[in-house]
Amino acid sequence: MHALDGVKVLDLGTFIAGPFCATVLGEFGAEVVKVERPGGGDHLRRFGTDTECGDTLVWLSEARNKRSVTINFADPRGLELVRELIAWADIVIENFRPGVMEKWGLGPEAVQEINPRAIMLRVSAYGQSGPLRDLPGFARIAHAFSGLAYLAGEPDRVPVTPGSTSLADYMTGMYGVIGVLMALRARDATGRGQVVDIALFETIFRALDELAPAYQRYGYVRERMGADTVNVVPHSHYRTADDQYVAIACSHDDMFRRLALAMGRPELSAPDRFGPKQNRLAARDEVNKIVAEWVGSLTCDEVVTRCRAQDVPAGKVNSIADIFADPQYAHRGTITTQESRIGPLAVPGVVPTLSETPGEIRWLGPELGAHTDGVLDEILGRSVEEITQLRADGVV
């Protein structure tokens, strides 16, 4: 049994943000039908590292558990097939620019008319309303517009994209999961679906802790701080004697007291030294210098061992090579190896872990149109002859 057995998802999206929501739902048992353009398919198939099967590593990992169906939206018969899939679905996911679905006659009103119980997830750069609603956008633009990129990097250097990742896409997909699951819960009470409207920038802005109240209340504009954290110190990355980096987090006074013990310098946590948080913040550079010198005199393993002995949160700043060798990742199944069209492939595992209805990866990203015949037959009731004609006419 899976948590979402029986839930039917129609994935009309492209790239990552909307489709990632469908991916997570599919991991926990939802049946996901992904509609793609005949011939080319989702652009995600060509985003990332190319492989010998013709699709990228990103596609193979992120299109897991989906049934790929090709439908030509330019043909009225294709749009009719999509309408029938909307009638079948519990959740309809799209992440086109606002207005595109309406152009096809598949806006919220049309979806509700076709299927009053359908929940429609709409993902866009700036949301379905507002002066910027019609503009395109990707994760990088969301990082910039949300304020995250402004905070990322070293002082007086070019703002960076954190981790060079599509963080906004994945976070928006996760918020999409939250939204549609809440809408499903509401549908249990009302019998009706609704629209879930998410903007890429909003999901990032929501995670920026006290940035908004600090500005509104005190006019404080946070600047780039490198690896440091605004309200506590030491809370950063420090280079070790063997040229590694260690993350150390001291979020309160008692934690700093324990770090001082780990360093063999308990006097540092005295009330007239750096024991109180305000003293540490006032002497940020000095405190960081003391910690950096101590870390720099030891190997990475020595620093981590001494910190953990005093219950101080610390860990190596891992590369992906470190992660593959880490026993905690192995124990948790955070990386799992699955069969794919290019052979065994290591991909991120399913998150979160449910004790009674765990998720699973049943297959990785499929070939374009691999499930078209099956979906047209099993879900839409088309005969073999009808499917053959639709394919001959370029409808699928």
From TrEMBL:
It is an enzyme of class 2 (transferase). Keywords: Transferase. Its EC number is 2.8.3.16. InterPro entries: CoA-transferase_III, CoA-Trfase_fam_III, CoA-Trfase_III_dom3_sf, CoA-Trfase_III_dom_1_sf. The keyword Transferase applies. Pfam families: CoA_transf_3. One of its GO terms (molecular function) is formyl-CoA transferase activity. SUPFAM superfamilies: CoA-transferase family III (CaiB/BaiF). Belongs to the CoA-transferase III family. PANTHER family: L-CARNITINE COA-TRANSFERASE, SUCCINYL-COA--D-CITRAMALATE COA-TRANSFERASE. This is Formyl-CoA transferase. It comes from Pseudofrankia inefficax (strain DSM 45817 / CECT 9037 / DDB 130130 / EuI1c) (Frankia inefficax).
